[in-house]
Design a protein that fits this description.
Radius of gyration: 26 Å
Helix content: 40-55%
Number of strands: 3
Number of domains: 1
Low-confidence stretches: none
Order of helices and strands: HHEEE
Number of helices: 2
Strand order of the largest sheet: 1-2-3
Largest sheet: 3 strands, antiparallel
Strand content: 25-35%
Mean pLDDT: 92
Distance between the termini: 101 Å
Shape: rod-shaped
Length: 130
């Protein structure tokens, strides 16, 4: 008589399934982290442009309104790399005219050395000169 052996233990199945799913979960997790960093930088750039526009709107009578605007943007975005931050403030500097603050900052979303998406975070704010 031949004895039949039934495989009833499944100890290795869970580990095998986890080994298959783990790389997908890790890539997804790091993608979420990279997107969060890029979104945080976007919010910082937008807030810095808003603060710079407000400073420029009330700095009409200062000796250097463009410098005041630029300094306010850079101080509001102090956690970003200042060498990569591009700031532009333009206006006629008369009461009622618009001041335009243009801020750009590069971003890159990469997963394990592979760049998925890159470009510039770009924000333009306008405010009326007081």
């Amino acid at each position: 008589m031949k004895k039949r052996m039934h495989i009833t233990r499944e100890q290795g199945q869970t580990m095998t399934e986890f080994a298959i799913v783990l790389p997908i979960l890790v890539v997804l997790l790091f993608g979420i982290i990279q997107f969060g960093i890029a979104f945080n930088n976007y919010v910082t750039v937008t807030d810095a442009a808003r603060a710079g526009a407000r400073m420029a709107a009330v700095s009409r009578n200062s000796s250097d309104p463009v410098g005041a605007c630029t300094n306010q943007v850079r101080s509001s975005a102090s956690d970003l790399d200042q060498s990569k931050l591009i700031v532009s403030c333009a206006s006629a500097w008369t009461i009622g005219s618009d001041v335009t603050v243009d801020v750009q900052y590069p971003y890159s979303i990469d997963l394990f050395g592979v760049v998925v998406k890159s470009g510039n975070l770009h924000t333009v704010m306008k405010e009326r000169v007081e």
